[in-house]
Amino acid sequence: MGFNIKNNYGPNIDNHDGGIINLRMGRDGRWAADAEEAEIVEEVEAAGDDVSLPENEEKLTGVLASDEAMRYWKLLQEAGFVDERCQLKPETTRKQAMYIAEVFAERLGIGSKWKTFERLWGISNLAQEKWDFQQTGTLPSRSKEIDRIFED
User: Measured over all CA atoms, what is the biggest interatomic distance in the chain, rounded to whole angstroms?
Assistant: First the structure.
């Protein structure tokens, strides 16, 4: 597996051999990167093996386990966004996760939406995804499908 980070402020970064890339910003405002070797784990996941949930997995409680929420979870599962344990499926993008969390929280009146869903899904920085969305004005792919899930 490889990836490319497109960067408007310096050189693009490519990694096609697996590994860890460390990014740091210098005092001059320029980014520098160095790479370290790392064990490649994508092959296990690509083979379809069951990947265990993170240790910090939160159980569905309170409003996330309500009848209304369970109806939304079922529709999200049928649409392929989450699995039977309400965890994001690998093909669900971070932007889609942010959008789901945003609409879910709005429908159920969840105040600390980012923390709630970040803890549940074992991801971080959903607020950054929201900020990026506000800057670009571009909705995530399948956003209309997500909207339909949460319609009454």
Answer: 54
